[in-house]
Write a structure and sequence with these properties.
heterodimer, A: 223 residues, alpha/beta, 9 helices, 7 strands, B: alpha/beta, five-stranded parallel beta sheet, 19 strands, 16% strand
Amino acid sequence: MEKFTTHTGIGVPLRRSNVDTDQIIPAVYLKRVTRTGFEDALFAAWRGNPEFVLNQPAYAAGSVLVAGSDFGTGSSREHAVWALKDYGFRAVLSTRFGDIFRGNSGKQGLLAAQLAQEDIELIWKVLEENPGTEVTVDLEKKLVTCADIVAPFQVDDYTRWRLLEGLDDIGLTLQHEAEITVFETRRESWRPTTLPAKHLPSVHIEAARPVVPGPAAGTAALV
Amino acid sequence: MAGTLAEKVWDAHLVRRGADGSPDLLYVDLHLVHEVTSPQAFEGLRLTGRTVRRPDLTIATEDHNTPTLDIDQPIADLTSRTQIDTLRANAREFGIRLHSLGDADQGIVHVVGPQLGLTMPGLTVVCGDSHTSTHGAFGALAFGIGTSEVEHVLATQTLPLQPFRTMAITVDGALRPGTTAKDIILAVIAKIGTGGGQGYVLEYRGEAIRALSMEARMTICNMSIEAGARAGMIAPDATTFDYLKGRPHAPEGVDWEAAVAYWSTLKSDDDAIFDAEVVLDAAELEPFVTWGTNPGQGLPLSARVPDPADIVDENERVSAARALEYMGLTPGTPLRDIAVDTVFIGSCTNGRIEDLRAVARVVEGKRKADSLRVLVVPGSARVRLQAEAEGLDKVFLDFGAEWRNAGCSMCLGMNPDQLAPGERSASTSNRNFEGRQGKGGRTHLVSPLVAAATAIRGTLSSVADLDDAARILQNA
């Protein structure tokens, strides 16, 4: 994972609260099997609106998203983080994040920084009055700077350390593989295994068919 | 030391305790996999030369993308077909059990796990899907994870996790006829808000919860994530054990005895301390519906569409105004006057056999309103078979509903089952987000009983609004 120490880039004010991951990337874009190339899907439902903040030239090259409270709630889709990163965002500032989104961000090197509501409001004001203003996010000092605003932010110590060092979680865990093996020897025999597979007898499943449209729709019209 | 249910299950899975702010490493008992959040995880394994540590603790189904019609034909949507084909190839390559479309055990992953008897008390269960909280109904610690974590679990069968806080949600009293588990959880979310549970494991308890069936408990735990919580749990009891006994993967013989003895210890101690507590009285609840674009924007069906001007908190006011604009609703409109175009019955929230029975009891012998379409999508192929064995399919077809094959379907519209722009649904699913059921679609979350009554009358309705309400509620 790429290290994150400090980042400076254009701030994008997203004056909305409760931006769930369905808004960040609608489900229809989740069908891809690749890990990149999601930039076109970011905020897809809003991108058609010329008023939307990312459609304004001054913000289009933004890399620090300044969002309302409860950003990234809802679905677990990590695609939300990929879409933000693919678009060019390196940090998201909010007063509160959905738990899974925050975790996913930490795994992907996107900084989810938690600020006080007053500070978010102040930064919004600066970014709206002077579009294109840069925001600096300093992870070592845990400070956000925007014009003359200097605001502290919170991020859990472990995520901060991993981001600063650019460490891969799986590699870290596999350092403890011997302990995992010991744990497995203690696993009680009542705990389930999926293999060998057990299930009720296999039965043929009839395919449902489209109902013929029209006034006679219903049971009689089944094809 | 006294502990909560969540803490007991957590402690039983500690591979190592983290020091100096680093997370605990927890062992995962059961990893559920589906086609949407897994392809990049398997690709990650290939790129790093890693393998799946415990294929025998892993199971996959196809659910999010699968069509609910013509399932014996190739999937028409090429990107959906590619994603399904990718899961099939990955399952073959890594030796993972997969229940594919057309298989009798295919279905929504959160319906399939419990029906196979794989979900049990005292387990840790994870899946790349936020509704994994469903499995907490058994007293398992179950939560959704992102794709990086899916890869982590595949490679190590563990997850590094910071401890959750705990919140007790006590629901006293008894539900009145016509109200259901869905109304309880919608009322809980409206009370604590969509962010109220963030960082917490919720434990549902109290008289009303104890009285619920396993399937109703799953409905409650399923929507914990809509209150922002990673997980919801209910202490196991005789209802849990009875549900599990005899299922394909349930323990047998001495293992069953040992399991029940252990499971019986899985409850919060009387003097356990929760970080937060919420109390509700089930007897005061009415059928609940959402009017906005997040699951916390809900009200009793007897209420009117709220006026944002009356909301004090600025964020909530702005959010409500935006929601009403999206939903095309006018403040002051009685919720009962809202006409819908589609009724969707299904999803991991309300797509189990009891949900279908409840709907059938209301609609039997009637015809749906001409103004709307009704989709009934069983949560799994086994649920479909069971419903057909009970003749419910005939009830639905005679009613004018469409009887579909199993999957996530219109809950999130990844397959062709979607709302058209501006179309309005009453849906037994879990999310009313903008565009969730199709771009521009408008969703009202409801219980199966409200969905059924709405399908008859054409506007948001409860069973009490029907001419034969007394008969239906008496037999409930």
